[in-house]
Amino acid sequence: MLYYLIQFSDQFGALNVFRYITFRTGGAIMTAMVFMFIFGPGLITALRVRQGKGQPIREDGPASHLLEKQGTPTMGGVMILMAWSTATLLWANLSNHYVWIVFWVTMLFGMIGFYDDFLKVSRQDHHGFPGRIRLLLEVVIAAVATYLVMALGKEPFASSLTIPFFKDTLIYLGPFFIVVGILVIVGSGNAVNLTDGLDGLAIVPVMIAACTFGLIAYLVGNVNFSEYLQIHYVPGTGELAVICGALLGAGLGFLWFNAPPAMIFMGDTGSLALGGMLGSIALVTKHELVLAIVGGLFVLEAVSVIVQVASYKMTGKRVFRMAPLHHHFEQKGWKEPTIVIRFWIISVVLALIGLATLKLR
What is the DSSP secondary structure assignment for residue 170, as one 8-state letter? Predict the structure, then answer.
């Protein structure tokens, strides 16, 4: 919205700063963070009052959670999405089609997660939205988003998969690229959702990934930088840096309340939405496979669940003491802060490896 102030820059030269993505990204960070600090306490109080007993804790999970986390309200993703959407609508260029694609993927995934959280809280049962219906809705949203991204791009590039470390390698998939888009967006959303199991565990890796893809989006959307780095230029993607900045600000504000011991949990409302956002940005910037590197922690968490379920069904034995992976380390005796901080470190390392793919081509 504020982007349109550049129309008056001839009369007021200072307004020209709204032309720059870097300035508006900084503004989005501060806006979302201040929003969280101002409205966060009131929203947490309201959610605690309305939810009563808070998020239901799984009885088959770590025993310590039944004692330490009982009564903590969930749906903190509502706070994140309110701060994020406010900052995005205020600072992003709303004439950019990619902004709206990412915006609606995030919000619609958030609505699915909200309904899931609502069912769990209202029933005081960890069984929420029926899995098949929820997955079907996610697939439809991801398919439509991928189709729109393909329609906005130029063929054959728009329907091709780029390969990290290889500057000229493209795998043309045609209409089947929609399947890739579904896997990226839906997979990312659910992987972040599985990671959200300890205080502060999911939000920091999400912020790290958002910072990484904010930089990637800025570079991919700048013809000079993309030419210098020999990466594929995608016009208009630079604006997604503003969206990533808004998430960083909202995430920092949320972490203030989610740090151990958490005053509120993100819930599916937040984790599903933020994962979907990362997936859609990776799709738009044509860095789908880089997301698997940058978000490698989320991939590990998801794979640990898949391996655990498959092993138990086929052999009757479990590979991990408990899945997802962070619960395995809890069962081994690691303290929660130890697991969380070490997983943060892993996320930073993976983000640096992901950024290295920009130059090693």
Answer: E
